[in-house]
Amino acid sequence: MIFNIKHKTVFSYNSAPLSAIQKLRITPIDNGNQKILNWNIDVIGCSIELETNDFQGNKIHLCKTVNDSKQIEITSYGKLEIFDTNGITGPHKGNVPIDLFKFSSSYYTNVGSKIKKLASDLLRDIDGKNFSDIELLNILSNKILQKVKYLKGKTNIRTTAEESLGLGCGVCQDHVHIFLATTRLLGFPSRYVSGYLMLNNTRIQDASHAWAEVFIENLGWVGFDISNGISPDDKYVKLAVGFDYLDVIPISGIRVGDSDEEIKTKILIESKQ
């Protein structure tokens, strides 16, 4: 599948900030199931000061405001080829030891009583049955979606896995954090993935998507889209990976000054076989 993608974010201020720096994670990863054919980033009202890779292997750009800008436009765009590999994206790469993905705990994925009960219920349900790791993880994914219905507006970017599991609703970010907390408790290395999804031929979108990957011996990293109940195929574009949401935020930053900020995002995705 060939994708043409354009991701545009506009920051508007009522008065120019004294200074603003944005960290960009909006360049797709070139790996086993996706190939970047071309990719560019254009900026207005700021300048790109640094291009590097972070400790997870994600492409990072840092940009800084120029000329007392009251508006910043950041547009990333390009073409990729995506291959359907049944969710398998290959061996581990990067500088992070694989075991850290097994033991890492964070604000979002800290294990509490609700996560512990979810894990124990899963183990009870499969007791005495000979399930493979893939089958067990799919059962967990389905169980999370049954317990936490996909519903916008009830959680936010600060909601933890414990909180959304208690609420019984959430969005893709919440589903992934619950999945990560539970799989790590069960001893699986797992990580957060951000990216794009061509869902139901929706060309124009206002947000990126999130799913999880688990490292399985003899297979490598395997993807699970909990919110949609499937493994990622050739309709998924991977942008960044990390321990949780904080490691993969597409655009984040800081600013100095008293100005109010308004953010608008538009993502255009076109595909062809």
Summarize model confidence as the mean pLDDT.
Answer: 93
Strand element count: 16
Share of helix, binned: 10-25%
CATH fold-level name of the largest domain: C8orf32 fold
Query: Globular, elongated, flat, extended or rod-shaped: what is the shape?
Result: globular
In short:
This protein is an alpha+beta fold. Helices cover 20% and strands 41% of the residues.
Layout of helices and strands:
Layout: E1 2-13, E2 19-24, E3 34-44, E4 46-53, E5 59-65, E6 71-82, E7 88-90, H1 100-103, H2 113-126, H3 133-147, E8 149-150, H4 161-167, E9 169-170, H5 172-185, E10 190-197, E11 204-205, E12 209-216, E13 220-224, E14 236-242, E15 251-256, E16 261-272
Parallel strand pairs: 8-9
Antiparallel strand pairs: 1-6, 1-16, 2-5, 2-15, 3-6, 4-5, 7-13, 10-12, 10-14, 11-16, 12-13
Helix pairs in contact: 2-3, 2-5, 3-5, 4-5
Verbal overview:
With 273 residues, this protein is of the alpha+beta class. The protein has 2 domains: 2-83 and 251-272, Immunoglobulin-like, CATH 2.60.40.2250; 88-247, C8orf32 fold (Roll). The protein is 20% helix and 41% strand. The protein is built from 5 helices and 16 strands. A hairpin with a 3-residue loop joins strand 12 and strand 13. Helix 4 packs across helix 5 (172-185). It is globular and about 65 Å long.
